[in-house]
Design a protein that fits this description.
- This protein has about 200 residues and is mainly alpha-helical.
- It has 2 domains: about 60 residues, Arc Repressor Mutant, subunit A; about 120 residues, Tetracycline Repressor, domain 2 (Orthogonal Bundle), CATH 1.10.357.
- It contains 9 helices and no strands.
- The longest helix has 27 residues.
- The protein is elongated, with a radius of gyration of 19 Å.
């Protein structure tokens, strides 16, 4: 019996899940067709049927990861400063799932920096995240929760702060447990609120 398109997509998603698992546990340098095949309990031939190159495999997996990341349940997204805080909390490795997701993203940066196509795609992803944060900063300023200033600059600073904090938490989870990450973020936001006072 011939495979349907749905079977093909389901298998590609299975392969992507195996890619994420390998990247989360072994980092990007540990991502090989052999490692993914072992994770799937399959052959490398099966992988190359769906993804002819490692780059094709990784690109698809990261696109699907972005799709899942954007679709996962978010915090309340109240209004003003609370909405900005919620959005920034969603970027931190505060749960095992979020930690695995952060490990996958961070471990893929090296490859993205050395591949012009991936680099452009990553720049697009971070620009889209920055644009969303800029809107939230502007709303927080309008409600009086943040000091006046260029919303895009404040969003860039907050995004950079959270990405740096996430990296520290990945490398030193005992020193940066979830409670400390939240406390540091709240301190950063409080400083932004006082900046114009």
């Amino acid at each position: 019996m011939a495979r349907t398109r749905g079977d093909h997509e389901a298998r590609r998603r299975d392969v992507s899940a195996a890619v994420w698992q390998v990247m989360a546990t072994r980092g990007f340098t540990g991502l090989t067709l052999r490692a993914v095949a072992a994770e799937l309990d399959a052959t490398t031939g099966l992988l190359t049927h769906y993804f002819p190159t490692k780059r094709a495999l990784v690109t698809y997996a990261l696109d699907l990861l972005e799709e899942r990341t954007l679709a996962r349940p978010r915090r309340s997204r109240g209004t003003g400063l609370g909405a900005l805080r919620d959005a920034l909390l969603d970027l931190l490795p505060l749960t095992p799932e979020a930690t695995d997701t952060s490990r996958v993203w961070v471990s893929s940066w090296d490859a993205a920096l050395s591949d012009p196509g991936m680099s452009a795609d990553y720049a697009r992803k971070y620009a889209a995240a920055h644009a969303r944060l800029t809107e939230l900063v502007a709303a927080a300023q309008e409600s009086g929760g943040l000091s006046p200033g260029d919303p895009a600059e404040i969003a860039a600073g907050a995004q950079s702060f959270v990405l740096g904090l996430a990296v520290q938490a990945l490398f030193s989870p005992a020193a940066f447990p979830p409670a400390r990450q939240i406390r540091l973020l709240d301190g950063h936001l409080a400083a932004l609120g006082r900046a114009g006072a």
